[in-house]
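G., the chain you wanted modeled:
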Amino acid sequence: MSEYMFGVQYQRPSRAEATRWNKVAREVMGRLGGYTEVNVKEGTALSINNGRYQGWFVGPNRGEPFDSQAAEETLRRCGLYQPPDPNYRCTTYGRGTFVEVPRHYRQTTAPEVAEIIARLISESGKEADIYAGGVAEAFDNHRLRMRGYLIPIAAWDAAFRPARLG
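Predicted structure as tokens:
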């Protein structure tokens, strides 16, 4: 079985924290899960990984959706999860052009922008399956979809004119 690696870290955790991360990875992904560090004994000497610390999580590669779900659960329980940045994409559906907005936009968008997007969704948005930006590229499968919203491009443009943003 191949390995699935994720959650690369460049900041050295304390020994206790690395041990806890290793335990969490094993709880989530079984006995083959864990947290791996590059040459802990030699640290970050220039001859090791270009002089910087590197660690990552590893588990058995069981394919999707298990791998991404296990990675997210592990990172959440370790306090390291960062949702992917929103990928606002323009697309044509039928006779209209829309901006695709992922459901998780509030988690990674500045509050003042998230407020405008929430208003647009309530006024003219509709739920739809949209392109899974970031995930689709990572898995080289550009047919991947996720739930999100479609906002007419005219409403988006009107709401985000420079004068409206301050």
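The CA atoms of residues 158 and 164 lie 9 Å apart.

Shout if anything looks off.
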